[in-house]
UniProtKB/TrEMBL annotation:
Coiled coil among keywords: no
The name this protein goes by in its record: N-acetylglucosamine-6-phosphate deacetylase
One Pfam entry name: Amidohydro_1
Co-factor note (free text): Binds 1 divalent metal cation per subunit.
Gene transcribed to yield this protein: nagA
Amino-acid positions noted as binding substrate in the UniProt annotation, renumbered to this chain: A131, N207, A208, R215, H238, L292, A293, G294
Length: 367
């Protein structure tokens, strides 16, 4: 049972949330304006669709590393997530994805639910790797189907301009995969064609993609002109607040991801991002050449960042939970409603995270 200002799909109520067997059984209360009382905020648990690591562990290690990652992010309000891979040689990536298929079958006590896999690469443009290893390849349907057979692949990032990828997009979409455009040098026309083939998202908007110019709109321009959904990293390092605001006006259901690495929740120092060595310092993670290499962002910090640049808390909450659930077609997460999973976060008035509930389990230890 939770008491406070509860954000429901219909707006704020001041009252009580009841749950049983991991599900919300009732919401009692009356409409309220949280600015007029001192009760805590109760929001839907955060859903992060782009997680590479945390707590010193990397998704590409698979196995027990995923337990560490799931617990680390639950301590910061994430109640469900996608384990996100790095580009790697086929045999190595297949082994990792197979291992991830195993860990998605159960939830680590004290940790976030791993809903499936976000395959970020290897089907990206070698000219726009960002921090991805130099192992990009063109997609081949038999290989894609092999990955799909060993794990629940929920999202795939690819570069649409690579020969053969338009057909692959259609094949993946037909199998329920959300295809995102990213790590790409695509033209505006390439991107529009990919959207017509069923692609529906953009990976870490602005980063590692062809930028917008008024005579060459690129991938960013296509997102602004056509996207319903796109992910963005609001650590205020990857994207300037002004660019975030521009994206908010253009893309109705822009949603938050962390793109977090093994350095998340850890002190400054040397870490791994897949096969890459990265350094955490000055609030970011970089390769030796200075390239941004994921982030150390957590979802509770992302909430505070977005509020700090002027977004209303209810709007921020939607962008951290409901829109990601909508993107994946999940109706029983990302919202506080009767019958939904009891995934919730409790924030004090100063936006300090006070508690995380994952499927009704209270997470009580915080970093």
């Amino acid at each position: 049972m939770l008491n406070g200002n509860i954000l429901t799909p219909d707006g704020w109520i001041r009252g009580t949330l009841h749950c049983e067997n991991g599900r919300i059984t009732a919401l009692e209360g009356s409409p309220a304006d949280p600015s007029k009382n001192g009760d805590p905020y109760i929001l839907p648990g955060f859903i992060d669709l782009h997680v590479h690591g945390g707590g010193g562990a990397d998704v590409m290690e698979s196995g027990a590393a995923i337990e560490t990652i799931a617990r680390t992010h639950a301590h910061h309000g994430t109640t469900s997530m996608l384990a996100t891979t790095m580009t790697a040689p086929r045999d190595e990536l297949l082994a990792v994805v197979s291992g991830l298929g195993e860990v998605t079958r159960t939830r680590t006590p004290g940790g976030a639910r791993v809903l499936g896999v976000h395959l970020e690469g290897p089907y990206i443009n070698p000219g726009k790797l960002g921090a991805q290893p130099d192992a990009a390849v063109s997609a081949v349907l038999d290989e894609v189907l092999k990955y799909l057979s060993v794990a629940p692949i929920r999202v795939v990032t690819l570069a649409p301009e690579i020969a053969g990828h338009m057909e692959i997009i259609s094949e993946m979409v037909a199998r329920g995969v959300r295809v995102q455009l990213g790590h790409s040098l695509a033209t505006y026309d390439d991107a529009v064609a990919a959207l017509k083939h069923g692609a529906c998202g953009f990976t870490h908007l602005f980063n590692a993609m062809s930028p917008m110019h008024h005579r060459n709109p690129g991938l960013v321009g296509a997102a602004f002109a056509h996207a319903e959904f796109a992910e963005i990293i609001p650590d205020l390092l990857h994207v300037h607040p002004g660019a975030i605001r521009a994206a908010l006006r253009a893309i109705p259901r822009l949603y938050v991801v962390t793109d977090s690495t093994s350095a998340t929740g850890m002190p400054d120092g040397e870490y791994r991002l897949g096969s890459q060595h990265v350094t955490k310092c000055l609030g970011g993670v970089r390769l030796a050449d200075g390239t941004l290499a994921g982030s150390t962002l957590t979802m509770d910090a992302a909430l505070r960042n977005l509020v700090s640049i002027g977004l209303p808390l209810a709007d921020v909450s939607n962008r951290m939970s409901r829109y990601a659930a909508d993107y994946l077609g999940i109706e029983d997460r990302g919202r506080l409603a009767r019958g939904a999973w009891a995934d919730a976060v409790v924030f004090e008035r100063d936006l300090t995270l006070a508690a995380t509930y994952v499927e009704g389990e209270q997470i009580v230890e915080y970093a």
